[in-house]
Amino acid sequence: MIINRDDIEQMEQRYRGLFINSVLGAKPALLVGTNSINGDSNLAVMSSAFHVGANPPLVGLIIRPSESPRHTLNNILATGYYTLNHVSPQYIEAAHQTSARYPADQCEFEAVGLSKKYLHDFSAPFVEQSTIALGLKLREEHRLAINNTHMIIGEIQLIELPAKVLGDDGFVDIAANDSIAATGLDSYVRIQALRRLSYAKLGQWPKAIE
Amino acid sequence: MIINRDDIEQMEQRYRGLFINSVLGAKPALLVGTNSINGDSNLAVMSSAFHVGANPPLVGLIIRPSESPRHTLNNILATGYYTLNHVSPQYIEAAHQTSARYPADQCEFEAVGLSKKYLHDFSAPFVEQSTIALGLKLREEHRLAINNTHMIIGEIQLIELPAKVLGDDGFVDIAANDSIAATGLDSYVRIQALRRLSYAKLGQWPKAIE
Question: Which parts pass through the membrane (chains A, B) (predicted)?
Answer without folding.
Answer: none
